[in-house]
Design a protein that fits this description.
Strand content: 15-25%
CATH class of the largest domain: Mainly Beta
CATH architecture of the largest domain: Sandwich
Number of domains: 2
Strand order of the largest sheet: 1-8-3-6
Number of strands: 12
Largest sheet: 4 strands, antiparallel
Shape: globular
Radius of gyration: 19 Å
C-alpha cells in the first residue's frame, strides 16, 4: 500500500481555496488567512493511503480536489469500502469522535490535493470559528447516517438492489453529465462495487452485464455511465 505523498506545497496558500467551503464559509478573510498559515498542503498520487486505520490520528484534513475511498479491514482481513468522500469535505476527523486513532484508511481514488492541520488545533477551531464545529458535526452525522443505511441495505435488500443503491449514491455524490448519461467521476472497478455491497466480484459482473444489455448503464475500463437512472431507482424500490 502506497503511503508516500508529494512534498508540502508552499508558498502561501490563497484564501479562495477554502473561503466558500461550508466549514469556513462564515469566517472572515483574516480568520481564513490565519487557518491557512497553520495548514499543510499536499498532492497525493492515485492509490495512496493518506492515513491508515489504527494509526495515531495526529492530523485532520480537508479534501480540496480529487476523491477519497474510506476503507475498513474486517477481522478476517478482507477490505471493505465504507464510503467515498468528494472534494470540499473534511475527513480524518477522528478527534471529533473522541478517538486518538483513525477508524479507517483514507485511499485516494484519483490524484488528490488535501489540506491538513494538527489534531491539537481542532478544539481551537471549534471554539473560535463560527460554523466550523456545526458543519463538522453535520459531516459526522451524515456519514453515520450513510453507514446505518448501508447496514439496513445489507440486512434487507437483494444483491441487485444493493448494487443499484451503491451506483446511485456514487452518481449523486460525484456524477457529471456526459452525452450518454451520468458518469461516476472517478475510476470505479467491479471489485470496488463488490467491496461496497458485500457481494462477490462474479455477482457484480453478472449484474452489470445484465444492466448493460438492458440499456441501464454503459461500462468500460474503470468507468461507469448510468444511461437510465430511473430504472436503477425502480430496482432499489424492488419494482423491476
Amino acid at each position: 500500500m502506497k503511503t508516500k505523498s508529494r512534498q508540502n506545497l508552499r508558498p502561501r496558500l490563497d484564501e479562495s481555496l477554502i473561503a466558500d467551503l461550508p466549514p469556513f464559509a462564515k469566517l472572515s478573510r483574516e480568520a481564513i488567512s490565519d487557518i491557512l498559515k497553520q495548514a499543510t498542503s499536499r498532492r497525493h498520487d492515485a492509490g495512496t493511503a493518506i492515513f491508515e486505520e489504527g494509526r495515531e490520528a495526529d492530523r485532520f484534513y480537508m479534501l480540496l480536489d480529487g476523491y477519497i475511498r474510506v476503507v475498513r479491514i474486517t477481522p478476517d482481513g478482507e477490505q471493505v469500502i465504507a464510503h467515498h468522500i468528494p472534494a470540499g469535505q473534511l475527513f480524518g476527523i477522528a478527534v471529533a469522535l473522541g478517538r486518538d486513532t483513525y477508524p479507517a484508511t483514507a485511499m485516494t481514488a484519483t490524484e488528490s490535493l488535501s489540506l491538513s492541520w494538527p489534531s491539537s488545533l481542532w478544539n481551537e477551531f471549534v471554539d473560535t470559528h463560527i460554523g466550523f464545529g456545526a458543519q463538522a458535526m453535520k459531516t459526522v452525522g451524515g456519514r453515520m447516517g450513510e453507514i446505518n443505511n448501508r447496514m439496513v441495505e445489507m440486512a434487507t435488500q437483494q444483491v441487485e438492489q444493493r448494487i443499484a443503491n451503491a451506483v446511485l449514491r456514487l452518481i449523486n455524490q460525484t456524477g457529471h453529465k456526459v452525452d450518454s448519461g451520468i458518469e461516476i467521476n472517478f475510476p470505479i472497478t467491479r471489485q470496488d462495487l463488490s467491496e461496497m455491497t458485500g457481494t462477490t466480484l462474479h455477482t457484480v459482473s453478472r449484474v452489470l452485464s445484465s444492466w448493460e444489455k438492458l440499456g441501464y448503464i454503459k461500462s468500460g475500463r474503470k468507468r461507469i455511465v448510468v444511461t437510465d437512472p430511473h430504472q436503477l431507482v425502480m430496482l432499489c424500490a424492488g419494482k423491476n
